[in-house]
Amino acid sequence: MTGPSAVREFPLPDLGEGLTEAEVLTWLVAVGDTVHVDQPVAEVETAKAVVEVPCPFHGTVTALHGAPGETVAVGAPLISVDTAPARPATGFAEPGVAVPEARGSAEGGGPVGGAAPEGTGSGAVLVGYGTAEERPRRSRGARRAPRPPRPGAGAAPRGRVPVVSPLVRRLAREHGLDVAAIAGSGEGGLVLRRDVESAIAVAGERATPAGAAADAERPGVERIPLRGARRTMVERLSRSRREIPEATVWVDADATGLLRLRSALNEAAPDRPVSLLALLARFCVLGLARFPALNSQVDADRAEVVRFAHVNLGFAAQTPRGLLVPVVHDAHRMSARELSAELTALTDAARAGTLPPGRLTGGTFTVNNYGVFGVDGSAAIINHPEAAILGMGRIVRRPWVPADAPDTEDAVRARLVTELTLTFDHRVCDGAEAGGFLRFVADCVERPELLLGDL
C-alpha cells in the first residue's frame, strides 16, 4: 500500500528590502520533474534584481503557480511538490487507528518526507525563508492556517474588505479608489491586484474623452507594461514630485584642470583608472562634510530632518531594465580610485541584472553624469527619500574668462567647460547652503590640484 499524498506548497519567499511581489521570468522545472533540496526552480524579477529561487523540498513537481510574465505576491504559492516517498509504507492499516508518520514526513525533517537527510537541511536561505528548526506537529484537530487566496471564488462578505496584500491597498489609495467599492475576484471575495487595476482602467475610461480612447486603440499604438525596476522607478519619481519642494541651482565650471588631473592619474596607474564620475563623486563627498544639510532626508511623520554622518552615494546607471540607482555604501571612506572601481563593478552588475537588492537602497545623496548623453544640463528629480542630487553636463570647448584675468579682450580663452546642477529639497536647507555646496564642487572641478591630498 502506498502512503498518502504529501503535496507541499512552497510560497514565494520574502526577498527582502520590503519587496511584496515578483514577476516570474522563467521556470527551471516542469510538472512531473523531480526536484532536490536547494535546486533552483524559477527565475524571478523583483523591483530590485533578477534572482533564482531555490526549493527547500525534495519530490515531484505537481503544479507551477504562475506563467512567465505573471506576478506572484510574497507568501502566495509558487510551486507545489509531492514529497511522499515512492516506496510502500510499512506497518498496517486498521479502521479507526492512526499510524504515526515517520519523523520528517510532513515537516521536511528527514528523507521519508522528501526533504534533506537528517542533519543536513536546506542550505539556500532567502530573506524571510530558509532552513529552520523543525516546528511542533499540529494535532489532527488543529485548525489549518488559511492559504493565500486564489482566483475564482465568490463575492466578498459584508464587513471589512478582504485584500490580498498591502500593495493592493496602496495601489487603490494612490489612485483614489475605495477598496470597499471594488468587487473581489479572489477566494472569499478577496480584492486582488487585477481587480484594482481593472477599476483603475474603468476610472480612466470615464475620464478620457472618446476621441483619445479611440486614438489609443488605433493600429501602431504600443502599450508597454510597467514592471519590475521600471515600475519601481516610476513610483519613486512620482512620489518625489508629489512630496519634495525642490529647487535647482547651476553654475558653469572650467573643467580643463579636471581632465588634466584625470589623465595624470591614469598615466600613473593605468591598471587602476579613475573615471570623471568618480572624481565628481569624491568632490561631492568632501562637500557634504562641509555642508551636511544636503546629506539628509525629511521624516515628515515626525516633522524632523535626519542628517547622516555617513555618505551612501547613489549614482544613475542606464541598464536594459531601465534607469537604476546603485548605491556605494560608506563612500566617505573611499579614495577616488576606490570609488571608481566600485562604480564600475556596480554598473556592470546592474546591467547584468545581478545586483543584490541591498545595493539599490539606503542612498543619502545621488550624483549623475548626464553629459554622457550629450546634454549640457538637467533639472533632475531627487531620488526619494534623499534630499539632493548633483549632475554634470557634457564638457565642451567654449570661450572663457578666468575670474582672476585682467579686464582686457585678450583675457578670453578657449577652455573645456561643463555645467554643474544641484537639485535640492528646500525643506532641509536654504539656497545659501545649497549654493555654497555647489560652489565648493565647482571650485574642485576648476582647481582639483588643491585637493590632491584628499583624493
TrEMBL record:
Domain annotation Peripheral subunit-binding (PSBD): ranges: 163-200
Identification of the protein by name: Dihydrolipoamide acetyltransferase component of pyruvate dehydrogenase complex
CDD domains: lipoyl_domain
Sequence ranges of Basic residues compositional bias: 137-147
Alphabetized GO MF terms: acyltransferase activity
Keyword terms: Acyltransferase, Lipoyl, Transferase
Region of interest: Disordered: 100-160
